[in-house]
Amino acid sequence: MLIAKNISSYYGNIQALDNISIEVNKGEIVSIIGSNGAGKSTLLMTLCGIVPAKTGSIIFNDTEISTLPTHEIIRMGVSQSPEGRRIFPKLTVYENLLIGDPLKREKDINLEFIFEIFPRLKERINQRGGTLSGGEQQMLSIGRALVSQPSLLLLDEPSLGLAPIIVKQIFETIKRINKENDTTILLVEQNAFGALKLSDRGYVLVNGKVTISGESKQLLENPEIKKAYLEGV
């Protein structure tokens, strides 16, 4: 579904991604793990056009998208729930969800699946986003990304800052979105253990480079990864 080859991205003169190549197959959950500053969020932003790729190629469903603007990439079936949730605090839950519709088809939007997996959002539908708990805001961010009915969902640090019991619920919901909604998922996480347990395959980013990749089960047993990311788990 997604092939990124030799991607390099910059912030001014500072290189954030260095010749990265990844692949995501239809139906998979693929995780990207690494420490702060490794380039994980930049990779997701590059894939959806927010940060331009200076070199390389990004192919989504056989179409080159590396030069397309973000709104066109979303219309093709890619959507992102960003790090930090980025909801609109003064808008209601319903209004926040509507923003996830790139074609402004309010009458055609089907929120049934979103309210099924996140019943709390239905209960809070007329409540302002800024009054929600951290876990509820994360649900809203993911729900907003699902409104456009993407075939590829990019999730950036969905467990960040949440209590362990809420993290468990979020991870269970991600699995459900993948299986029940036939949505392929690319997951960026600092919670390496949780991400690898959830995903089919994974990539490890260090200083903007892919250093290790493979099936998640193998990565969980890799001594280097255990030492760097899984100690104490």
CATH class: Alpha Beta
Tally of domains:
1
Number of helices: 10
Distance between the termini: 33 Å
Q: Stretches where pLDDT falls below 50 for ≥5 residues?
A: none
Listing every helix as H and every strand as E from the N terminus to the C terminus, the arrangement reads: EEEHEEHEHHHHEHEHEEHH
Helix content: 25-40%
Number of E strands:
10
- Mean residue pLDDT: 91
> Which fold name corresponds to the CATH topology?
Rossmann fold
The spatial strand order of the largest sheet comes to 6-7-8-3-9-10
- Cα radius of gyration in angstroms: 17 Å
| Oligomer state of the chains in this structure | single chain
Major beta-sheet overview: 6 strands, mixed
The CATH superfamily turns out to be P-loop containing nucleotide triphosphate hydrolases
CATH architecture: 3-Layer(aba) Sandwich
Outline? globular
Strand content: 25-35%
Structural class: alpha/beta
What layout of secondary structure does this protein have?
Layout: E1 2-11, E2 14-24, E3 29-33, H1 40-47, E4 53-60, E5 63-64, H2 70-76, E6 78-81, H3 93-98, H4 112-117, H5 119-123, H6 134-146, E7 152-156, H7 164-180, E8 184-189, H8 192-198, E9 201-206, E10 209-215, H9 216-221, H10 223-230
